[in-house]
């Protein structure tokens, strides 16, 4: 079975080698770069076995992109503490949404109304809405990229309608077709990135219920998520344009 490799980063400004990948199952690190070829250099290496190849990489590549611990260092928090993060961020809160269904969406009256009519009457009296409006009124940015299947699931259509409320609160919502997300090799992770320094990785059970959140501050992980954000944001389509194009296609 092929390894599940995740690209961590590269030391090349042109996007080539040398680069670092990480095996998501074993934790092993795969580094590739130019081979060491000078016979006099190779002769100085100890324990180089037959079939092995020595490669040369900048020290900064290992400092910047190799995991600092065998496993990611996380602090798990409950949903109440997670909600408090939206009161505390200083500048930006950015979200990647990749799932086809969020069970929590299906427990309110808006969901039933949307299923029956294709549109919901959104209100703004929830703690989340109050927190976001308070933050965006101060000029802070709240942004999301939502991945959408073709055809969209009911849950994704619900969130496309929900973006009307998000926009009124000052959020900037963009969408990306899953085929494009796969082409960009975006991870199948749901996370918030606060102030480009704190990752809140959302954890779901088999019933699509959000159960807890892992907080990650490891620099290499934060930079990786910043790279994901930049790629997703660059290619995603603003919500109004996305929905208009969906309507014209239909």
Strand tally, please?
11
Largest sheet, if any?
A: 8 strands, mixed
As laid out across the biggest beta sheet, the strand order is 4-10-9-8-5-6-7-11
Q: Report the C-alpha radius of gyration, rounded.
A: 22 Å
Helical percent range? 25-40%
Shape assignment: elongated
Distance between the termini: 40 Å
String of helices and strands: EEEHHEHEHHEHEHEEEHEH
What is the count of DSSP helices, taking H or I runs of 4+ residues?
9
Structural class: alpha+beta
Extract low-pLDDT stretches: none
Overall mean confidence score, pLDDT? 89
Q: Note the beta-strand portion.
A: 15-25%
Topology overview:
Layout: E1 5-10, E2 19-23, E3 29-32, H1 39-43, H2 59-65, E4 74-77, H3 79-88, E5 92-97, H4 109-117, H5 127-137, E6 141-148, H6 154-168, E7 172-177, H7 178-183, E8 191-194, E9 198-204, E10 210-216, H8 219-235, E11 237-238, H9 239-249
Parallel strand pairs: 5-6, 6-7
Antiparallel strand pairs: 1-2, 2-3, 4-10, 5-8, 7-11, 8-9, 9-10
């Amino acid at each position: 079975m092929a390894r599940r490799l995740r690209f961590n980063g590269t030391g090349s400004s042109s996007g080539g080698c040398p680069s670092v990948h990480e095996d998501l199952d074993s934790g092993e690190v795969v580094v590739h770069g130019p081979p060491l070829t000078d016979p006099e250099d190779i002769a100085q290496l100890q324990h180089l076995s037959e079939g092995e190849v020595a490669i040369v990489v900048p020290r900064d590549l290992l400092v910047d992109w190799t995991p600092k611990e065998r496993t990611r260092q996380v602090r798990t928090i409950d949903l109440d503490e997670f909600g408090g993060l939206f009161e505390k961020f200083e500048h930006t809160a950015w979200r990647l949404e990749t799932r086809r269904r969020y069970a929590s969406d299906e427990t309110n009256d808006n969901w039933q109304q949307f299923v029956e009519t294709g549109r919901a009457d959104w209100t703004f009296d929830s703690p989340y809405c109050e927190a976001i409006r308070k933050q965006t009124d101060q000029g802070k940015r709240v942004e999301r990229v939502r991945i959408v299947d073709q055809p969209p699931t009911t849950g994704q259509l619900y969130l496309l309608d929900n973006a009307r409320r998000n926009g009124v609160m000052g959020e900037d919502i963009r969408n990306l077709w899953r085929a494009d997300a796969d082409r960009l090799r975006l991870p199948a992770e749901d996370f918030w990135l606060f102030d480009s320094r704190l990752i809140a990785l959302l954890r779901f059970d088999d019933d699509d219920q959000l159960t807890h959140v892992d907080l990650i501050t490891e620099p290499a992980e934060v930079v990786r998520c910043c790279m994901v954000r930049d790629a997703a944001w660059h290619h995603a389509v603003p919500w109004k344009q996305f929905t208009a194009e969906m309507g014209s296609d239909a």
